[in-house]
Design brief:
Strands 2-3-11-10-9-8 form a six-stranded antiparallel β-sheet. Strands 1-12 form a two-stranded antiparallel ribbon. It is built from three helices and twelve strands, in the order αααββββββββββββ. Helix 1 crosses helix 2.
Length: 207
């Protein structure tokens, strides 16, 4: 229709078209159609950019999987070094991770190691550290005040810990498990930025 329209416009305002003029009009119509088709196609740059974004998504997924496998592998090594529930003894002295009131409410603390059930923990393969005294409760980090507490094991988001080869117990989003303040019986435990040279951030797995 565009060709006929072009011819009718030309015929109404100019002398009759010669065969050569018709060929020119036909060529112009084809060029116009090709431009419209090309405008409708995605640009090569856009396609390349989309490909890069897909590769970045794949890379992020791969890093997440590698991190998860690494955490399970390291924690599994800690489980292999002990039989059953273990104590977590702090590297700065003979203090173990404990729940002083044997209750689910107060923050975790360090106390002289005595082998009681409140000082014993099951190191689970998914990264959780489960209480031997309360099997339904796991070591977690309370977001409202950032103290380490018992949290229900059914919600592993804030309860994933990575036991490092140097003895640090790292929470991926907050730091390493650390007694805060003077190292005395009853000192509460939270997390602090990981420092490989700090003995209070090093924990020994004791059967």
């Amino acid at each position: 229709m565009q060709r006929r329209h072009a011819e009718s416009v030309l015929s109404s305002h100019s002398p009759p078209l010669t065969p050569g003029d018709r060929r020119k009009v036909s060529q112009q119509d084809r060029l116009t159609a090709m431009v419209r088709v090309r405008r409708g196609r995605p640009k090569r740059e856009d396609a390349a950019q989309m490909h890069v974004f897909r590769l970045m998504d794949v890379a992020r997924l791969a890093l997440w999987v590698i991190g998860a496998v690494f955490s399970v592998t390291v924690l599994g090594a800690g489980v292999a070094s002990a039989d059953g529930p273990v104590q977590l003894r702090n590297g700065a002295g003979d203090f173990c991770l404990d729940q002083p009131d044997n209750s689910i409410y107060p923050p975790m603390a360090i106390n002289p190691c005595n082998g009681s059930m409140s000082q014993r923990w099951n190191l689970l393969g998914n990264g959780q550290i489960q209480s031997a005294a309360y099997p339904g409760m796991c070591l977690g980090l309370e977001e409202r005040d950032m103290w380490a507490r018992y949290l229900g094991c059914a919600n592993p988001g804030d309860e994933i810990w990575i036991i490092q080869p140097n003895g640090q117990i790292r929470q991926p989003l907050s730091g390493c498990l650390t007694p805060v303040g003077d190292l005395n019986p009853g000192t509460w435990v939270s997390t602090r930025p990981c420092n490989g040279g700090a003995p209070e951030q090093q924990w020994e797995i004791v059967p």
